Amino acid sequence: MALGPDAAWRGDALPREFYDRSAVAVARGLLGCYLVRRLGARRSQAVAGRIVETEAYVGERDRACHAHAGRTRRNAVMYGPPGHAYVYLIYGMYDMMNVVCRPPDEPHAVLLRAVEPTTGLDAMRRRRRVRRDADLASGPGKLCRAFAITRALNGADLTAGPLSIVAGAPRATERIQRSARIGVEYAGPDAARPLRFFLAPNLHVSRR
DNA sequence: CTCTCGATGCGCT
DNA sequence: GCGCATCGAGAGA
Q1: Domain extents for chain A?
Q2: How many angstroms separate the CA of A10 from the C1' of C6?
Q3: Which nucleotides of B are covered by protein (CB under 7 A)?
Protein backbone atom coordinates (compact mmCIF):
# COMPACT_ATOMS: atom_id res chain seq x y z
CA MET A 1 0.00 0.00 0.00
CA ALA A 2 1.37 3.38 -1.03
CA LEU A 3 2.04 5.87 1.72
CA GLY A 4 0.10 9.07 1.34
CA PRO A 5 1.14 12.54 2.46
CA ASP A 6 -0.35 11.94 5.90
CA ALA A 7 1.75 8.83 6.57
CA ALA A 8 4.29 10.45 8.90
CA TRP A 9 2.44 9.09 11.93
CA ARG A 10 3.32 5.54 10.85
CA GLY A 11 6.92 5.98 12.04
CA ASP A 12 8.45 4.63 15.22
CA ALA A 13 7.24 5.86 18.59
CA LEU A 14 9.45 8.44 20.26
CA PRO A 15 12.07 6.71 22.44
CA ARG A 16 12.03 6.78 26.22
CA GLU A 17 14.94 9.28 26.28
CA PHE A 18 12.79 11.89 24.57
CA TYR A 19 10.70 12.12 27.72
CA ASP A 20 13.57 11.96 30.17
CA ARG A 21 13.94 15.75 30.38
CA SER A 22 12.16 18.71 31.92
CA ALA A 23 8.51 19.19 31.05
CA VAL A 24 9.40 22.50 29.41
CA ALA A 25 11.76 20.82 26.95
CA VAL A 26 9.25 18.05 26.24
CA ALA A 27 6.34 20.48 25.87
CA ARG A 28 8.22 22.34 23.16
CA GLY A 29 9.52 19.17 21.54
CA LEU A 30 6.06 17.63 21.24
CA LEU A 31 4.73 20.41 19.02
CA GLY A 32 4.32 18.99 15.52
CA CYS A 33 4.63 15.40 16.72
CA TYR A 34 1.85 12.90 16.03
CA LEU A 35 -0.48 11.50 18.66
CA VAL A 36 -1.46 8.02 17.48
CA ARG A 37 -4.33 5.94 18.87
CA ARG A 38 -4.84 2.39 17.65
CA LEU A 39 -8.27 0.85 18.08
CA GLY A 40 -10.05 -2.38 17.31
CA ALA A 41 -9.47 -5.96 18.34
CA ARG A 42 -6.31 -6.18 16.26
CA ARG A 43 -5.49 -2.46 16.49
CA SER A 44 -6.17 -2.20 12.80
CA GLN A 45 -7.92 1.17 13.05
CA ALA A 46 -5.88 4.27 13.64
CA VAL A 47 -6.67 7.82 14.64
CA ALA A 48 -3.86 10.35 14.50
CA GLY A 49 -3.12 14.05 14.54
CA ARG A 50 -0.46 16.69 15.06
CA ILE A 51 0.05 18.03 18.56
CA VAL A 52 -0.33 21.82 18.34
CA GLU A 53 -0.70 22.92 21.98
CA THR A 54 0.87 21.73 25.25
CA GLU A 55 1.41 22.84 28.83
CA ALA A 56 4.30 22.05 31.16
CA TYR A 57 3.72 21.15 34.83
CA VAL A 58 7.02 21.30 36.59
CA GLY A 59 7.07 19.41 39.86
CA GLU A 60 6.09 19.70 43.51
CA ARG A 61 7.00 23.35 43.80
CA ASP A 62 4.70 24.31 40.92
CA ARG A 63 1.40 25.16 42.62
CA ALA A 64 -0.53 24.33 39.45
CA CYS A 65 0.96 20.83 39.24
CA HIS A 66 -0.95 17.84 40.60
CA ALA A 67 2.26 16.81 42.36
CA HIS A 68 2.20 20.01 44.40
CA ALA A 69 0.81 18.24 47.47
CA GLY A 70 3.16 15.30 47.11
CA ARG A 71 2.51 11.80 45.93
CA THR A 72 -1.08 10.52 46.04
CA ARG A 73 -2.94 7.64 44.44
CA ARG A 74 -4.14 9.86 41.62
CA ASN A 75 -0.77 11.33 40.63
CA ALA A 76 1.36 8.23 41.30
CA VAL A 77 2.12 7.76 37.59
CA MET A 78 3.92 11.10 37.57
CA TYR A 79 6.44 9.64 40.01
CA GLY A 80 7.16 6.68 37.76
CA PRO A 81 9.37 6.32 34.68
CA PRO A 82 9.07 8.81 31.79
CA GLY A 83 7.17 8.13 28.59
CA HIS A 84 3.94 6.98 30.19
CA ALA A 85 0.47 8.53 30.04
CA TYR A 86 -1.04 10.21 33.09
CA VAL A 87 -4.80 10.36 32.47
CA TYR A 88 -7.26 11.72 35.01
CA LEU A 89 -10.90 12.82 35.24
CA ILE A 90 -11.80 16.47 35.70
CA TYR A 91 -15.16 18.16 36.38
CA GLY A 92 -16.72 14.75 36.70
CA MET A 93 -16.86 14.18 32.96
CA TYR A 94 -13.71 14.98 31.03
CA ASP A 95 -10.52 13.00 30.73
CA MET A 96 -7.16 14.77 30.37
CA MET A 97 -4.02 13.26 28.94
CA ASN A 98 -0.53 14.09 30.15
CA VAL A 99 2.86 12.76 29.18
CA VAL A 100 5.09 11.91 32.13
CA CYS A 101 8.57 13.45 32.01
CA ARG A 102 11.30 12.65 34.45
CA PRO A 103 14.18 14.92 35.13
CA PRO A 104 16.02 13.26 38.05
CA ASP A 105 13.57 12.57 40.89
CA GLU A 106 11.05 15.18 39.83
CA PRO A 107 7.40 14.59 38.90
CA HIS A 108 7.02 16.63 35.71
CA ALA A 109 4.27 16.18 33.11
CA VAL A 110 3.04 17.76 29.89
CA LEU A 111 -0.68 18.24 29.31
CA LEU A 112 -1.79 17.74 25.70
CA ARG A 113 -4.16 20.63 25.03
CA ALA A 114 -4.91 20.47 21.31
CA VAL A 115 -4.38 18.27 18.27
CA GLU A 116 -4.85 18.90 14.55
CA PRO A 117 -6.61 15.77 13.23
CA THR A 118 -4.90 14.17 10.23
CA THR A 119 -6.11 10.56 10.12
CA GLY A 120 -9.35 8.85 11.07
CA LEU A 121 -11.51 11.97 10.96
CA ASP A 122 -14.69 9.95 10.41
CA ALA A 123 -14.10 8.06 13.65
CA MET A 124 -13.50 11.34 15.47
CA ARG A 125 -16.66 12.88 14.02
CA ARG A 126 -18.62 9.90 15.30
CA ARG A 127 -17.37 10.52 18.83
CA ARG A 128 -17.73 14.28 18.68
CA ARG A 129 -20.72 15.98 17.12
CA VAL A 130 -19.25 19.28 15.97
CA ARG A 131 -19.94 21.62 13.07
CA ARG A 132 -16.32 22.22 12.09
CA ASP A 133 -13.45 19.76 12.06
CA ALA A 134 -11.32 22.43 13.74
CA ASP A 135 -13.38 21.79 16.89
CA LEU A 136 -12.79 18.03 16.99
CA ALA A 137 -9.71 18.12 19.21
CA SER A 138 -9.13 21.81 20.03
CA GLY A 139 -9.05 21.33 23.80
CA PRO A 140 -7.72 18.84 26.35
CA GLY A 141 -11.11 17.25 27.02
CA LYS A 142 -12.09 17.34 23.36
CA LEU A 143 -8.98 15.56 22.15
CA CYS A 144 -9.38 12.77 24.68
CA ARG A 145 -12.92 12.21 23.50
CA ALA A 146 -11.94 12.33 19.81
CA PHE A 147 -9.09 9.87 20.40
CA ALA A 148 -11.02 7.59 22.79
CA ILE A 149 -8.56 8.25 25.61
CA THR A 150 -9.90 7.48 29.08
CA ARG A 151 -8.55 6.66 32.52
CA ALA A 152 -8.29 3.05 31.36
CA LEU A 153 -5.07 4.28 29.69
CA ASN A 154 -3.63 5.83 32.84
CA GLY A 155 -0.08 4.53 33.10
CA ALA A 156 0.05 3.31 29.47
CA ASP A 157 3.52 3.12 27.93
CA LEU A 158 3.74 5.61 25.06
CA THR A 159 6.71 3.84 23.45
CA ALA A 160 4.65 0.72 22.69
CA GLY A 161 0.96 -0.11 22.61
CA PRO A 162 -2.38 1.41 21.61
CA LEU A 163 -1.39 4.96 22.50
CA SER A 164 1.87 6.45 21.24
CA ILE A 165 3.57 9.55 19.92
CA VAL A 166 5.61 9.69 16.72
CA ALA A 167 8.25 12.28 15.78
CA GLY A 168 7.17 15.38 13.87
CA ALA A 169 7.99 19.06 13.66
CA PRO A 170 6.34 22.43 13.14
CA ARG A 171 5.68 23.40 9.52
CA ALA A 172 7.84 26.02 7.85
CA THR A 173 4.94 28.45 8.23
CA GLU A 174 4.46 27.81 11.95
CA ARG A 175 6.21 29.37 14.91
CA ILE A 176 6.22 28.28 18.54
CA GLN A 177 4.53 30.79 20.83
CA ARG A 178 4.05 30.67 24.60
CA SER A 179 1.65 32.09 27.17
CA ALA A 180 0.38 31.54 30.68
CA ARG A 181 -1.35 28.21 31.27
CA ILE A 182 -5.13 28.00 31.02
CA GLY A 183 -7.42 27.47 33.98
CA VAL A 184 -4.86 27.59 36.79
CA GLU A 185 -5.74 30.97 38.32
CA TYR A 186 -5.75 29.34 41.73
CA ALA A 187 -1.98 28.74 41.51
CA GLY A 188 -0.92 32.15 42.78
CA PRO A 189 2.40 33.33 41.36
CA ASP A 190 2.77 30.16 39.29
CA ALA A 191 -0.40 30.99 37.34
CA ALA A 192 1.43 33.65 35.34
CA ARG A 193 4.42 31.54 34.32
CA PRO A 194 4.59 31.17 30.50
CA LEU A 195 4.40 27.38 30.39
CA ARG A 196 1.81 26.95 27.65
CA PHE A 197 3.27 26.31 24.19
CA PHE A 198 1.39 26.38 20.89
CA LEU A 199 1.89 26.65 17.14
CA ALA A 200 0.82 29.77 15.27
CA PRO A 201 -0.74 30.29 12.93
CA ASN A 202 -2.79 27.12 13.44
CA LEU A 203 -6.58 26.89 13.52
CA HIS A 204 -6.63 23.91 15.88
CA VAL A 205 -5.29 25.47 19.08
CA SER A 206 -7.81 25.86 21.91
CA ARG A 207 -7.84 29.66 21.91
CA ARG A 208 -6.86 32.20 19.31
C1' DC B 1 -19.10 37.30 18.00
C1' DT B 2 -19.08 37.43 23.70
C1' DC B 3 -20.59 36.16 28.14
C1' DT B 4 -22.69 33.24 31.78
C1' DC B 5 -23.85 29.07 33.81
C1' DG B 6 -24.77 24.22 34.90
C1' DA B 7 -23.27 19.46 34.51
C1' DT B 8 -21.03 15.77 37.19
C1' DG B 9 -17.56 12.36 39.79
C1' DC B 10 -14.09 12.06 42.75
C1' DG B 11 -9.67 13.25 45.24
C1' DC B 12 -8.40 15.27 49.11
C1' DT B 13 -9.06 18.25 53.67
C1' DG C 1 -18.11 19.16 51.68
C1' DC C 2 -15.22 21.90 48.36
C1' DG C 3 -13.40 22.72 44.17
C1' DC C 4 -11.47 21.22 39.98
C1' DA C 5 -5.37 21.64 34.15
C1' DT C 6 -13.54 21.85 30.81
C1' DC C 7 -17.20 22.05 27.58
C1' DG C 8 -21.30 23.40 25.16
C1' DA C 9 -25.87 25.45 25.28
C1' DG C 10 -28.34 29.56 25.47
C1' DA C 11 -28.91 34.57 25.62
C1' DG C 12 -27.78 38.97 24.01
C1' DA C 13 -25.69 42.14 20.74
Answers
A1: 22-200
A2: 31
A3: 7-13
